[in-house]
Amino acid sequence: MLPDSLRADVRTLWDYHDLGHELRPSDVGIGLGSHDLGVATHTARLFHQGLFPLVVFTGANAPTTIDRFPRGEAVHYREHALELGVPDDVILVEPAARNTGDNIDLSRRLLADEGVEVSSVLLVCKPYQQRRAYATARKRWPDVEVRCASRPLSLDEYIESIGDAGRVIDMLVGDTQRITEYARRGFAIAQDVPPTVSHACARLVDAGFTSRLVR
């Protein structure tokens, strides 16, 4: 459970990363690999709703996913989507990406190699990854319209689905730091970080949620 003493600051970061994009039909849905199988679940759901005719699952492994997805994030995502009724012939798998920049670059290359013309993409990701995924795609694939989507869960519902409040807070803190740090390094476009967000993040860092910070 999320401790009451941390709730306000965690909620501030959670709300900041939710872009609230209006979903509209796109040329392709790209499910970004992670520890969260719910990304594949939601990608399948959006496909069945007719939001896109083609799916790309992208992701190799990270230390946080190797035990759960030993054959690779994208491979396991594909298998889950097949179980949910997504046809095999509309799924492309990109199995090498090890970070969000790779997710974008290698998916873009895969689609080009397949002869797919893309003017709009819907990135499906973890709720707290929306802002970073959007900023990365706008930097690395500037000629397409980018929107983001995540499972429509509340903060408490999401923590329950992951089963580890500390892990979620660590990820939120890490992704908040990356908004500024990755723009500084040229990996993503710059975005406004309100003082309320910066202060909330700093308090959570002081509380010890530092395992996902960029050193």
Automatic annotation (TrEMBL):
Gene3D superfamilies: HUPs (3.40.50.620)
Cellular component GO terms, alphabetical: plasma membrane
Top-level taxon: Bacteria
Listed CDD domains: YdcF-like
Residue span, DUF218 domain: 39-140
Protein name: DUF218 domain-containing protein
Species this chain originates from: Prauserella flavalba
Species classification: Bacteria, Bacillati, Actinomycetota, Actinomycetes, Pseudonocardiales
